[in-house]
Amino acid sequence: MRIYEGSPRQDYEEVLRSIGAFLDQHGMREILLAEAPDGFIVQGLAMGGATGQWSESIAQQQKETLTFLDDDIARFMEEAITRRNPASPPPDFARAGRYEKALRVLGRYIDQQRPRDVFFFEQDGAFVLRLLMQTQAGSRHVLAEFTREDIEQMVAQGPAWRDQPRPAPSAAPPSE
Questions:
Q1: pLDDT > 70 in the chain, percent
Q2: Which of 23, 82, 91, 120 has the fewest CB neighbours in a 10 Å radius?
Q3: How far apart are CA 170 and CA 176, in angstroms?
């Protein structure tokens, strides 16, 4: 995530939160996210329109692939900051969409791990993460799995995390 180098906040929490808000707005689900050198690639199922035999519009579910470049992500983050302007009332986190909430808490977990690269997919509200970690023996991939219930619990704890210093990276993810 080159665009965040040297900035006061260098974290996945805000980046993934802003991508999650975009996904919520576009009705995607069952997502896959891969970090690329210049941003992120996201695949998911989305409802697309199709025209029937008598020109009736019917919605069909289809796989959609999106590429979010560094500039896109910077714009998403600026828009999110504007929405949460201190002059405005505090944001109602309960009004955030499912992906905005889930990706925010996953981003916080990822920040604690400090990986070099991120890949994850979601299935029925559960997430499997593959993080490229630097170890004394070199780089290696580490897997972590979060059930739907894990995500719900992390989201519920989210408001208590505000204004708290970030904990140091944990030794191991919840499950490997």
A1: 72
A2: 82
A3: 13
